[in-house]
Design goal:
By secondary structure, the protein is an alpha+beta fold. The protein has two helices and eight strands. The chain is globular and about 45 Å long.
Length: 131
């Protein structure tokens, strides 16, 4: 991996969309530990959480049962625990995974680009979405 800032992304199997990695906590799991576990499970990359970069909520979604919901999102800035780790697809949630330079991101939603930009600002305090 070169020294330019890069982001680890996954192309989701279900919809083919590129996104930062995400996941759901296991019962009793701390958020930072969940991030490290999810990244390792999905890409084989061992990571270290450096910062809680943002607290946001997802856009509204409609569940299969018709209920509408929004999810609390904790956005973390992380780095590889070991330099030059090569990511690989490790589960059926991803069609492809890889490191991308910030100026060469694959096609993705504007929302995903905004979340990446928040992390890249490198603010010492978490960004909070306006109510």
């Amino acid at each position: 991996m070169d020294e330019r800032p890069q982001v680890l992304l996954q192309q989701r199997s279900a919809a083919g969309l590129w996104t930062p990695l995400s996941g759901i906590l296991e019962p009793g799991e701390a958020p930072a530990a969940g991030v490290v576990r999810e990244v390792a499970e999905e890409t084989g990359v061992r990571g270290v959480v450096e910062l809680l970069a943002a607290l946001t909520s997802s856009p509204p979604v409609r569940q299969g049962n018709g209920h509408r919901a929004q999810y609390l999102e904790l956005v973390f800035a992380c780095r590889p625990a070991v330099p030059d780790q090569v990511p690989r697809v490790c589960d059926d949630e991803s069609a492809e995974v890889g490191w991308f330079a910030l100026n060469a991101l694959p096609s993705m939603s504007e929302r995903m680009r905004e979340l990446i930009a928040i992390v890249e600002k490198g603010e010492a305090q978490a960004w909070l979405a306006a109510p």
